[in-house]
Amino acid sequence: MTGPRRDTRGIVEARELFARVRFRRREPAPALRPYLEHYWLIDWDLAEPYASHVVPHPSVNVVFERYDDEPSHAEVAGIGLELFTHKLSGRGRVCGVQFRPGGFRPFAPDRPVSDWTGQRLPLGDVLLPGRDEETLRTAAHSVVDPDDEDARVAAMDTFLLGLDPRPDPRAEHAMELVERVRTDRSMRRVSQLAEAAGLSARSLQRLFAGWVGVGPKWVILRYRIHEALERAEQADEQTGGPTGAAAGRPAGGVDWAALADDLGYSDQAHLVRDFTATVGVPPSAYTRAAR
């Protein structure tokens, strides 16, 4: 790991969000890096409410939150299957832990990760079962209350290391396969991934259910939409440049037919259908709204 990734994949209208909140990613302690993507931290002080939207990654998150003068609290967010909308108002702070897809199970080994999919549960229900409320409040306060950012990162390190994650070969295998889907555009079908993994399609499904939380087909489709969303954001930033046939792209900034082919769709209509179902608006409407 060379540091937290810097892309905006999954964030809808990223520039709008970054104009309203202070967002950054931080690297965890070395012993935690095999399991975690990064920490993410957001602070805001808004005169008017704002709704942020995220197309979730195939990742479990642990979220420590504080809003205005309310007590700090923490929860485990399983993989979100739908567009996640979060309304921000007043002053607040969030410190989040994004696990690698497949990296959460070593911290909660007794249950398949699919048990948490689509759910947001109190921290004590998943990672600290049987602990009293005071212990849970103390854990949340220790992470989200310090004004010093380094202290917040250190507190998340301490909390997660205290859970004593153990190496798990199946978790490692799942993480490797999801990373291959994310980085290899030629990996477009579950049968390809199963062959690369040396598993039957059914065994691959069981591995993903137990250690990732969603099926391999869902992961493949989600990363396609993430890339399409990021391309739309990048095209919006470039709209001041030339467009049209001479520039190699249409006036909207994105050649959606070419992108559909690049992402492995049989045609543009299938990409538009998946994008619309996930983001809530067609690609053309999204780029117009962004501009």
Radius of gyration: 20 Å
Helix proportion: 40-55%
Structural class, judged by helices and strands? Answer: alpha+beta
Strand content: 15-25%
- End-to-end separation: 35 Å
Question: What's the story with the biggest beta sheet?
Answer: 6 strands, antiparallel
Helix and strand string, N-terminal first? Answer: EHEEEEEEEEHHHHHHHHHH
**Average pLDDT number:** 89
| Structural domains: how many | 2
How many alpha or pi helices? 11
What is the count of β-strands?
A: 9
Major sheet: order of its strands? Answer: 2-3-8-5-6-9
- Please state the overall shape, judged from the principal axes of the Cα atoms: globular
Low-confidence stretches: 240-251
Write a brief caption for the model.
This protein has 291 residues and is an alpha+beta fold. It has eleven helices and nine strands. The strands form two sheets. Strands 2-3-8-5-6-9 form a six-stranded antiparallel beta sheet. It has a three-stranded antiparallel beta sheet with strand order 1-4-7.
Element layout with pairings:
Elements: E1 11-12, H1 14-20, E2 21-26, E3 36-45, E4 50-54, E5 61-67, E6 73-77, E7 84-88, E8 91-99, E9 120-122, H2 123-126, H3 133-144, H4 149-161, H5 169-183, H6 190-197, H7 201-211, H8 216-237, H9 256-262, H10 268-279, H11 283-290
Antiparallel strand pairs: 1-4, 2-3, 3-8, 4-7, 5-6, 5-8, 6-9
Description:
This protein is α+β, with helices and mostly antiparallel strands and 291 residues long. The chain has 2 domains: 11-161; 168-291, Arc Repressor Mutant, subunit A (Orthogonal Bundle). The chain is 41% helix and 18% strand. It has helices at residues 14-20, 123-126, 133-144, 149-161, 169-183, 190-197, 201-211, 216-237, 256-262, 268-279, 283-290; strands at residues 11-12, 21-26, 36-45, 50-54, 61-67, 73-77, 84-88, 91-99, 120-122. The longest helix is centred in the last third of the chain and has 22 residues, at 216-237. The protein is globular, with a radius of gyration of 20 Å.
